[in-house]
Amino acid sequence: LTNGPLTGKHALVTSGPTHEPIDPVRYIANRSSGAQGTAIATALRDLGASVTFVTGPADVAPPAGVRVVRVNTAREMKDAVEAALPADVAVFAAAVADWRVASQSASKIKKKNGALPVLEFAENPDILAAVSQMTSGRPQLVIGFAAETDQVLDHATAKRVRKGCDWIVANDVSPETGIMGGAQNAVTLISDTGAEVWPRMNKSDVATKLANLIVDELGRGV
Ligand code: C5P
Questions:
Q1: Phi, psi of 74 (to 5 degrees)
Q2: Which member of 31, 61, 183, 203 has the greatest number of CB atoms within 10 A?
Q3: What is an example of a GO molecular function annotated in this UniProt entry (predicted)?
């Protein structure tokens, strides 16, 4: 779109899981499908934004008409995000692994008659927090996600402050909700003015609603 409300704006979206290698053939991952992040990138594109889409190995195909940067690990995702800045708005929808295997094996770990391997972990960089706390060149609007299984609102509200982002899109990813990997999402949008509970709707509708709020916020000017 050459004359949409986000024409001339650069939107950065992260999406999907990350894969953290154990050895050359094994990895640790999570159940993120990439559906919500892909829908958000699509909605922003449809409003005219130029979109950089940094994606881990997702189940769903990235949207057409956006710049796609494929990564595997959290550290690769951080590098890709830094390389993509500056942006007017950054939406961190990726389910980034909190931990990676501290010393991955250069060769496939073999069974040794009953001795079990022990994995040690190291903490991954927090990409959302790093971008939220940039002292220069920070995107005007930084949006994080909070996928929780309990005390969703409390955890997400605390997360917004701790990370320093502007908005948090909180959702309950308990298995019985069917949200992770499903077509629908039930979110609460948390900002400095409070929490807004959205009805359960298709992930594409969550994306459209969020994208329209992004238009309003960027339109408020700097
Ligand atoms: O702390 P938690 O992983 O629950 O935070 C979720 C939010 O932070 C999501 O927006 C996710 O994309 C982002 N995040 C990140 N880098 C990490 C961990 C989470 O950008 N290492």
A1: -60, -40
A2: 203
A3: phosphopantothenate--cysteine ligase activity
